[in-house]
């Protein structure tokens, strides 16, 4: 994919796809909550933020769950259409899944449906119950899903081991120390203190505490590994024309997107210290006509510090780059575990969201 191509929709076009609402539930361990209830509540929050009610939605786009095949089956057979009172009204309800890049691809898909006229207003929903699900089920899932059965699974490779391999390679390539890597986790925890829905809000972290936690897969310590949590998010996209008729004078549009499918098997990745981040970002910048200096917010997603630092440091040491990216630092970096789209609309001029499988560039738009 050497050539770039235009987005084929003008920023002032009536059918330009825009974000107008978002919802989020607190993340953590909430055994008293349930899957369908969380999806319903977070969807209603996003619709309220968009000044809408369920019957304003014609398409529901669902991000599948991994904690239960039974809950996922409910999504396949349009359970949420019934829960939101949209049976007979809804045009379509379906799912999209691409692992860690799912929210990016959900945005692309919703945008295409709106721009082409196949949808008017799309509600995107996701919920996971990893924190309250059966622990053995979660261990099995994280030990087998996405691991090549023929070659890598027999060696005992699982998600934490993959994270460890990438971390070790990154540390070698950048001469980062264990303290450097731990400092990145501390920075993320500092950002969490500003998010009322964060799992560990009110629980600060130190480098010493990270390094004192047990080693899970050398060089990864327990506090450098993803935590199992319950959570739910939703967002609403519609056309610029529809947003304007509803009184929105500022919306967020997708100015461009990029992606890079870098590998399936980790053994086929030529450089674990690089991955596909740079390619995805370059493609997004080229399509949008913007560059890194135009970005005011970098929202970087992945499950291990090393993978996220690859996206944000361009090969520099983690401590040098991310020690300055704590609250009130020189740069604004927001990190999210799992696949949740945070609030983007508001007063920002240009925003960049970068993920392992893709990097859409989005920006505020005044009508």
Arithmetic mean of pLDDT: 84
Number of helices: 12
CATH homologous superfamily of the largest domain - what is it? Answer: Thiolase/Chalcone synthase
Structural class: alpha/beta
* CATH architecture descriptor name of the largest domain: 3-Layer(aba) Sandwich
Major sheet characteristics: 10 strands, mixed
| Name of the CATH class of the largest domain | Alpha Beta
User: What is the H-and-E element order?
Assistant: EHEHHEHEHHHHEEEHEHEHHEEE
Question: How far is the N terminus from the C terminus?
Answer: 34 Å
What oligomeric state best describes the polypeptide chains here?
A: single chain
Q: Cα-atom Rg, whole angstroms?
A: 20 Å
In what range is the share of β-strand residues?
15-25%
Per DSSP E runs of 2 or more residues, the count of β-strands stands at 12
- Numbering strands along the chain, what is their spatial order in the largest sheet? 3-2-4-7-1-8-12-11-9-10
Question: How many distinct folded domains?
Answer: 2
Percentage of helical residues? 25-40%
Tell me, what's the shape? Answer: globular
Enter the CATH topology name of the largest domain: Peroxisomal Thiolase, Chain A, domain 1
